[in-house]
Design goal:
heterodimer, A: mainly alpha, two-stranded antiparallel sheet, 19 helices, 2 strands, 75% helix, 2% strand, B: mainly alpha, Helix Hairpins, 3 helices, 76% helix
Chain lengths: 488, 100
């Protein structure tokens, strides 16, 4: 019976229904939210178990398969993204159940967060480029609304900038979809992958789709919207935006790159991968330097996201020769960054609650007064810096190995410099947690649940460092990296 | 020039016009209108290119996409307008501040 359960449908429908119920019936929204995200974790485990038995998972909604109907498809890469969403979603929900001090903020938070979760899960399960557009837009609208939730000039202006950037990105993506549909008469990724050839319309589509998604992923120099939006949102929202939402548009970019654009016959990937690598490398250095210059903790973490996004793009130029190795590194980096960065933003939320501010210089001995949060921040920092043993270490190590194998010294240098700069900005924060501030502040108690949620995420990022082989085995179900296309 | 090509070129023109307006205008209402014009350009291209299969019956799939796209555009515009009004009541002007 369990092997026939439609966990993919549950992952999409349950948060959708719970979100709408939470909107109609605010009194139960919190409990629905926790229950739904816990059920999400169980469903992902169930889906993973089914996939280990049967390989990739394909579900034609309503019995109508592609090309007419909509297919839900999960391979190892989708499963990894779903697992990332489930774990971060659960921890964020636990955290949010104590985070909001005003009832009306919480009433607005839960329905939108659950709708966003539904959109994310649907995105990771989509098998056609138009369905990806719809889920991308749903996710964008949810994310923008959540980032405006805090109110005030900074948050509203940040949300507006974010909305304009995300809509522009979607428009470019949709125009690319229109051109691809015109050229090949299909939106199904697997069919596109088989039919793709090189023509001016396809080149235009490649440019539009890459530019649109790079804008949404905040790849340097299109990252201008990210720091204000992520830094001024409430802590659980910042965590979701940095950990999951930017990964979703990156996932689409990666998926289309692997199965459609980077095709051996067309040779379209040549040159474009180098450009993406250069932008990624610049993002690593620029984002880290900007992070180091910040005086507010949340802005520092937001710029660190810009830098860590850069690492994901460093794999593109390496993949031509190293293939699976570079993509495995990307999968690992995406997962461990999601866990560590969400933990960091939750820690920042705790510190903000505790001291009433997030000025790094005035952290005032939180290591003694808030040891769990300081510990969680340090553990998350270990993964962001890429020190062993942590998920971030495995990801960066695989990337370093690929670059050394190919003698690509530019990327090796960027990887080492990026690690040193990350260490500099993390230790800048950690150093201030030990020091007494010039003038003492009033401190507010932080609920234990909020501290434990941050610690849960940070320790998962460390535990990832010990689980490389089973996780990489799961990710490669369906061989998304080596021979893309739908397989059953 | 076939009508299909004409419509597609007009669509590309609208898209570029919208992109230009989005970048140069500071007032948020103009930016939101610009995004909508870009959207109309994309929809026009989708509808025009639907004619490619045969001369008599256009392909219905892009039409379905346009309808979905319109629904998305309406929701996005509503959200954008409400955020613009919020910003207006916070700062007294409907433009993005330069300092954030």
């Amino acid at each position: 019976m369990l092997s026939n359960m439609h966990f993919d449908i549950i992952l999409i429908m349950l948060p959708l229904i719970a979100g709408m119920l939470g909107f109609l019936w605010p009194a139960v929204a919190r409990i629905l939210g926790i229950f739904t995200t816990a059920a999400g974790v169980i469903s992902v485990i169930g889906l993973g178990w089914q996939m280990q038995l049967n390989g990739t998972h394909l579900h034609a909604i309503g019995g109508w398969g592609a090309p007419l109907g909509i297919d839900l498809y999960a391979d190892g890469l989708s499963l990894l993204m779903l697992a990332m969403t489930a774990i971060v979603g659960f921890a964020v929900s636990i955290y949010s159940s104590r985070y909001f001090t005003h009832r009306h903020d919480e009433v607005r938070f839960w329905p939108i967060w659950l709708l966003l979760l539904s959109a994310l899960n649907a995105l990771f399960l989509s098998a056609d480029i138009f369905n990806l557009y719809v889920t991308l837009e749903l996710m964008g609208l949810g994310a923008v609304t959540l980032s405006a939730l805090a109110g005030g000039k900074l948050a509203i202006a940040g949300a507006m900038r974010y909305l304009l950037a995300t809509l522009l990105g979607s428009m470019c993506y949709l125009l690319g979809v229109a051109l691809l549909y015109h050229s090949f008469g299909t939106v199904d990724i697997a069919t596109l992958s088989a039919r793709i050839d090189s023509s001016p319309a396809v080149w235009a589509a490649l440019g539009l789709i890459l530019a649109g998604l790079a804008l949404k992923t905040a790849l340097f120099p299109l990252h201008f919207w990210l720091p204000p939006a992520h830094a001024s949102a409430p802590a659980p929202v910042s965590a979701v935006l940095s950990a999951l939402v930017v990964k979703a548009s990156f996932y689409i970019l990666l998926r289309l790159w692997l199965s459609v654009f980077n095709n051996q016959q067309t040779g379209m990937g040549d040159g474009v991968d180098t450009l993406l690598g250069i932008l990624g490398g610049t993002a690593v250095l620029w984002g880290s330097i900007q992070a180091l210059r910040q005086t507010r903790l949340k802005l520092l973490i937001a710029y660190s996201t810009v830098a860590q996004i850069g690492y994901l793009f460093l794999a593109f130029p390496l993949a031509a020769a190293s293939g699976g190795l570079a993509w495995n590194a990307v999968a690992y980096l995406a997962l461990s960054h999601a866990l560590a960065k969400a933990a960091m933003f939750l820690c920042a939320g705790n510190l903000l609650r505790f001291g009433g501010h997030d000025r790094i210089a005035d952290l005032d001995r939180v290591v003694q007064r808030l040891p769990l949060t300081a510990g969680a921040f340090a553990l998350a920092g270990v993964s962001i810096m890429g020190l062993p043993p942590s998920g971030g270490f495995i990801g960066k190590w695989l990337l370093l190995k690929a670059s050394l194998d190919q003698g690509n010294w530019a990327i090796t240098t960027v990887l080492i410099l990026g690690g040193l700069l990350a260490a500099a900005y993390i230790f800048k924060v950690l150093g201030h947690t030990f020091i007494q501030a010039p003038q003492p502040h009033e401190a507010t108690a932080v609920p234990a649940r909020m501290e434990w949620a941050a610690l849960l995420l940070a320790s998962s990022a460390i535990i990832l460092g010990f689980m490389a082989s089973p996780i990489l085995e799961l990710v490669n179900i369906g061989d998304a990296f080596t021979s893309p296309g739908i397989k059953l | 020039m076939t009508p299909t090509l004409l419509f597609a070129l007009v669509g590309i023109g609208l898209f570029s016009l919208g992109l230009y307006a989005l970048i140069v205008h500071a007032h948020l209402l103009r930016k939101i209108l610009a995004i909508n014009i870009m959207g109309s350009g994309v929809f026009l291209i989708l509808v025009a290119l639907a004619k490619r299969t045969s001369e008599t019956t256009p392909d219905p799939v892009p039409h379905a996409m346009v309808i979905t796209g319109i629904v998305v555009a309406v929701s996005a515009t509503a959200l954008a307008l409400s955020i613009m009004l919020k910003l207006n009541s916070e700062t007294g002007c409907a433009e993005l501040p330069d300092d954030v």
